[in-house]
Each structure stands twice: as C-alpha cells, then as structure tokens.
Amino acid sequence: MLGTLNGVLEARGIFLSNEDLTADVEGINEIRDRLPVLTRIVVRYRLQIPSGSREIVERSLERHASKCPTAASLAGAVEVAWEAEITEAGEGAGEGA
C-alpha cells in the first residue's frame, strides 16, 4: 500500500522522500479452529508533506486503497485499514525557541 500511495501522490505532482513517507504495519490474527488466521492489517502512515498540499494528500489517501493490488488481493479475506499522521513542511517551526 505504501508504494501505491507514493505512486498516487507522484501522479499528482507530490514527490516525497523515503524519510517523508513511512509506514508501520500491524497484522492481527484470530484463532479459528485452533489456527492463527490473519484477519486484519492496519497501516499507519507518517507523511511530511509540502506546505499547501494537504487537500491533495488527503484525497489521495482516501482513494489509494482502491488502487492497491495487495489490498485488492486480500479483499474479502483480510480487512485492510489505514490511518495517517500528516505534517506539513514548516509546521512546528519556532518550537523550542
């Protein structure tokens, strides 16, 4: 999903470095018939975006899962959810001064 999101952003003219677009992923298993079965994946994005691009980034986030081959492959078997922490360049400037 990270690659898909990055591609969606680049198609809209927003190019983020590896440090500016990161994700932590958590897989959640449930025991079914005494077997651990992956039932949910949660992707937690952290984005440092250019100032003034928040609207485009938020729209891209809303749509990226529907364009992701991995999410499409898991549909119906594993719930895929995401959340995002977005910071615009320049936010927090002057803190600690």
List the helices and strands and how they pair.
Layout: H1 2-11, E1 21-32, E2 35-49, H2 54-64, H3 69-74, E3 79-88
Parallel strand pairs: 2-3
Antiparallel strand pairs: 1-2
Beginning-to-end CA distance, first to last residue: 38 Å
CATH class placement: Alpha Beta
Instruction: Provide the low-confidence segments as ranges.
Output: 93-97
Mind summarizing the main beta sheet? 3 strands, mixed
CATH superfamily: K homology (KH) domain
Order of helices and strands: HEEHHE
What name does CATH use for the topology?
Answer: GMP Synthetase, Chain A, domain 3
Mean pLDDT: 91
Radius of gyration: 16 Å
How many individual helices? 3
Q: Give the amount of beta strand, in percent.
A: 35-45%
Side-by-side strand order of the widest sheet: 1-2-3
How many separate domains make up the residues? 1
Strand tally: 3
CATH architecture group name: 2-Layer Sandwich
Shape descriptor reads: elongated
Oligomer category: single chain
Helical content stands at: 25-40%
What class, by secondary structure content? alpha+beta
